[in-house]
Amino acid sequence: MGSSSFVPALWFLAVLALIPLALWLLKRSPLQGLNAQGGVRVVGSTFLGPNQRLITVALGEGEARRHLLLGVTAQNIQFLQELQPGECPAPVAAPAPSFSALLARARQPKS
After folding, report:
1. d(CA 77, CA 85)
2. 16, 34, 57, 84: which could form a disulfide with 39 (CB 3.0–4.6 Å)?
């Protein structure tokens, strides 16, 4: 009778041990989507107003790569045009604000 009380605990430990293995396998799975092969990538984004952006998206790799300009709102994604290879801007990382600047902005009273 004493050994049967350990069976549920052993199953519980076995399931806990399988969770990291399942996550590792899922990460390397081909079901992850196009981003696993570099198929779809956001190249740039510009905010136009509340809930309005322009996004440049790269599709494909190498010679088959295409760049699309999309207008994005809260309700809609609209194809605007396909950019030629020379027209697509190089991705530029915006400098991250310093912690002190973020803290000062958070401490300002809301108006």
Report:
1. 22
2. 34
**Distance set, CA 104 to CA 96, 97, 108 (Å):** 15, 11, 6
- Residue 5 to residue 8: CA distance in whole angstroms: 7
Query: Residue 68 and residue 70: Cα distance in Å, rounded?
Result: 6
Rounded to whole angstroms, the Cα distance separating 45 from 54 reads 6
**Burial class of residue 67, CB neighbours in 10 A (0-12, 13-18, 19+):** buried
Could you report the per-residue pLDDT of 36-91, keeping only the tens digit for each? 455 788 888 888 888 888 898 888 777 778 888 999 988 898 999 988 766 665 55
pTM, to two decimals: 0.46
Helix residue spans in the chain (DSSP H):
7-27, 99-107
Contact status, residue 30 vs residue 36, Cβ threshold 8 Å: yes
